[in-house]
Write a structure and sequence with these properties.
Elements (H helix, E strand, L loop, with lengths): L6 H7 L11 E7 L6 H12 L4 E7 L6 H11 L3 E5 L6 H9 L6 E4 L11 H9 L4 E5 L13 H18 L11 E4 H7 L10 H11 L6 E5 L14 H15 L6 H27 L4 H24 L7 H33 L2 H23 L3
Parallel strand pairs: 1-2, 1-4, 2-3, 5-7
Antiparallel strand pairs: 4-6, 5-6
Length: about 375
């Protein structure tokens, strides 16, 4: 266990909330394996926020490195710190949402745990909100802001592309729609909270788009800052997160009619067809198996592939492990079998009407995809 500061340091950082003031600002910190950063972040926030009544809420997805234990140790010393610890869950957006929903402070900010965001601009952000802005975004791409120090060349160009795509759906000018650093009035957040997608990687763009769609476009202000390199630990960015972002983006582009999970499920289905064909080819041509055996093997491999990918991509936030993974897979096979029956009955029904082979085949395939999506969402990844 880390030793939480010397007495002199603790006294210098001790806070008005500890003496009974309700917080004016809640700083939400989503965390996964941030043990080496969280205490330093608190100290920097305490210095930046001075006499403001504030609290820090860390939302930790049961990090294996024991981040939650460090935060709990800190809350014994600093009364304005607490930890929301989630089990069997992963996801940045839902962590931010749950943190923001857990405070009575009229203003809430979200900041990364790894010290990449410059906490020193928080008072300026709060000032802008007090002066009337609904939402204040810390931006790396306007005024004095910069991202060059905190991102590799590949990440920087990826981030620029993601920013352009986000700007397409934002509906209003904003220089850094991919920012994970912002401050919002809590009542604004609460108005749209039930409608937020929850499974996206970026909560900010969702907040902006959802507010605009509810007929209340936000008054947005920006404060520039320089994005710093990560302090300790590792980034959680990976290719699956990029694909999840594309799913959220396409969903917003469809006006929210198609949920991100449906689009990702469909994408997984397309890769499943490729896996099916490759396995069929392998069994018939390389192993010399007969067609029926090859087709059975290809179906099993493709179903297992689809299950694995959906578990890690589409439903990464509620990924199944251990026994649940095994039962989930068996259930998935059963649901796909029912989906297959639905496919064949719909396709043959339509085929009997006018003998249009491809139209009937397509209708059957769409039917079973929608069936599989709806039923696995209700039973496998509920
Ligand atoms: N609770 C929670 N926090 C997460 C998760 N993934 C990332 N974070 C936190 O979100 C912040 C940004 O993540 P990071 O990996 O630094 O992303 P990057 O800056 O884009 O490389 C950090 O504070 C992470 O600890 C997650 O699945 N759950
Ligand atoms: Mg980071």
């Amino acid at each position: 266990m880390t030793e939480i500061g010397s007495q002199a340091k603790v006294d210098s950082l001790r806070h008005p909330v500890a003496t009974g003031h309700p917080p004016q600002l809640a700083v939400i910190v989503p965390s996964f394996n941030e043990r080496g950063n969280i205490e330093l972040l608190y100290e920097k926030l305490a210095i930046a926020l001075g006499a403001t009544a504030w609290e820090m809420i860390v939302v930790d997805d049961n990090s294996p490195d024991g981040t939650a234990a460090v935060v709990n140790e800190m809350s014994r010393v600093y009364a304005n710190v607490r930890c929301i610890r989630r089990f069997g869950r992963r996801g940045l957006s839902s962590a931010c949402v749950e943190g923001m929903a857990a405070t009575s402070a009229p203003y809430v900010a979200v900041i990364d745990a790894d010290l990449q965001h410059d906490e020193a601009i928080l008072p300026q952000m709060l000032e802008k909100a007090l002066a009337g802005a609904d939402l204040v975004v810390g931006t790396r791409f306007a005024g004095e802001g910069s991202a060059a120090t905190g991102l590799s060349a590949t990440r920087l160009s990826g981030s620029r592309l993601a920013t352009k795509m986000a700007a397409m759906i934002a509906g209003q000018p904003i220089s850094d729609p991919m920012s994970g650093f912002f401050l919002v009035r809590r009542d604004i957040f609460e108005n749209v909270a039930p409608k937020l997608a929850n499974d996206g990687f970026k909560i900010l763009i969702d907040l902006i788009v959802t507010s605009a769609r509810s007929g209340k476009p936000l008054q947005i202000a920006e404060v520039p800052y320089t994005f710093r390199p990560r302090h300790a630990g590792e980034s959680k960015m990976n290719p699956l997160i990029v694909i999840q972002y594309l799913g959220l983006w396409a969903s917003k582009l469809s006006g929210g009619i198609l949920p991100p999970s449906f689009l990702l499920f469909g994408l997984v289905g397309v890769t499943g067809v490729v896996v099916h064909m490759a396995t069929l080819g392998l069994f018939t041509y390389s192993l010399g198996a007969n067609f029926v055996i090859s087709q059975i093997a290809a179906t099993m491999v493709a179903m297992t592939w689809n299950f694995w990918l959906n578990n890690n991509l589409t439903y990464a936030d509620r990924r199944l492990h251990g026994r649940k993974l095994v039962f989930g897979l068996i259930g998935f096979y059963a649901i796909c079998a029912l989906g297959g029956i639905a496919n064949i009955s719909v396709a043959s029904g339509i085929y009997n009407l006018d003998h249009q082979t491809f139209a009937a085949g397509l209708a059957g395939a769409v039917m079973s995809s929608v069936f599989n999506y709806a039923v696995t969402r209700a039973f496998t990844w509920k």
